[in-house]
Design goal:
- With about 55 residues, the chain is mainly beta.
- Helix content is about 5%, strand content about 30%.
- Strand 2 and strand 3 form a beta hairpin.
- The protein is extended.
Length: about 55
């Protein structure tokens, strides 16, 4: 049995785009334990999809 996921009806993509910075973190298996300055930049591609550039 599958259940439909609820979506946000008032999502503002323009507010979401741009740089995001970690202010707290949980250990991730794919990152070194001493990782710092972790960020992600969200931008809009020409085809309307979202590009995510992660930095560690």
């Amino acid at each position: 049995m599958t259940q439909d996921l609820a979506t946000v009806s008032n999502f503002n993509l323009e507010q979401y785009l741009g740089p995001w910075y970690e202010i707290a973190r949980l250990p991730m298996k794919h990152q070194p334990e001493d990782s710092t300055d972790i960020s992600a930049v969200y931008s809009l591609k020409g085809n309307g999809k979202i590009r995510i550039q992660n930095r560690c």
